Here is the input.
Amino acid sequence: MLLKDIWYFACPARDIKPGSLQRKMLAGEPVMLGRTQGGEAFALRDICPHRAAPLSAGRIVEDDAAAGGAATVECPYHGWRFRADSGACAAIPSLTADQAMETTRIRAGRYPLTEQNGLIWIYIPADWRRPSEPQDGPPPLPAKLEQPRMVEKAVFACHVDHAVVGLMDPAHGPYVHRQWWWRTEGSMHEKQKVFGPRPHGFAMERHKPSSNSFAYKLLGGAPTTEIEFRLPGVRFETIRNEKHTVLGFTAVTPVDEDTTEVTQVFFWDIPLFSAIRPLMRPFVRAFLNQDRAMVDLQQEGLKFGPNLMLIDDADMQAKWYHQLKREWTASREEGRGFVNPVKETTLRWRS
Here is the structure.
C-alpha cells in the first residue's frame, strides 16, 4: 500500500536546473519535474493526453503567447503545449484557423509542488484526474538551516515498508553497521528512551546520544539529539550542542511497489564540517550501502512469503508506522481528521 493524498520528498532543489525537464517515478506516478528560466519549479503528469508521449522529452516554451505569456511544456510528438502552472492545454499546432476547439478543457494533470530549504516536495493525490488540494504543507524542518550541505542517495530493490522499518530499527546497528567509528557488538548495552506523538508521526524525545556512538563526539561539547519520524517516510535527527546544530534528514520515497529511493541529506552550521565534507562522504555512503545490502539479502527470504514478526519494545516504532499508515488511509476514506494512534511511552532495548 503506497500512501496517497500526501506530500512526498522528490529531490534536492538543485537537481532541477532552469529551463530543464526531467522524469521521475514517484509512488507509482509518472511525474515530470521542470523549472522555468525565471526559477519557478513545477510538476505535471509525465504523459501527454494526446498520444501518451512523455512530456519530459519535450521542451519548455518561455513566455508562450498562446498561454498569455505563461510558460508551457511542448510535447515532442505533435507539439501540443501545456501550461506549466496548471497543466491545461494552451495550443494544438495541427489545428487550422477555422477549426475551433476549446483546448483548455484538455489537461495533462498537475501535481502541487513546494520548494523549501533547498528540497522539492510533491503532493500525490489519490486520483490525479480529480486531485484534491493539500490541506497542509510538507513537514517543516525542525531546525532553521537553509540549504543542504551534503546529499547522498541510493536505490533499494524493495517495497517502501521494508526500507522504512529498516530505517527506524534501533537494534540492527551493531550488526549491519559494525565498524570501529560507529558501533560494535561488544559495545551493546541497555537503552531506555521516551517517545511521544508528533504531527503524522512520533519522536524519540531529546536526549544525550548513546555513549557507543563515536560519530556524535565530532560535534564537540555536550550534544543532545531528537529523532522524529513522519509519514510518509521521513526522519529528522536534530543534534545540538551549546553553539551549533546538525540536522540529518532521511527520506524514504517509493518509486513503485518494488523500488524505493533513500536520500540522506545533511544540514549544518559548522564551518569545520564543510571543510571535512570530502572525508565524511565515504562514511555516509558506507551506511547507505550496508542498509541496501541487508535489504537485498532480506529479499531472498521474502520470496517465500513468510509471516514476519515484530516484538516489543525494539520493534514498537515499526508497529507505530503500520498503525499510522492504516489511520492515514482510514481518515481519507472516511472523510475525517487524522487521529494519531501513538501515545507517550518509554521503550527499552539493547543495542
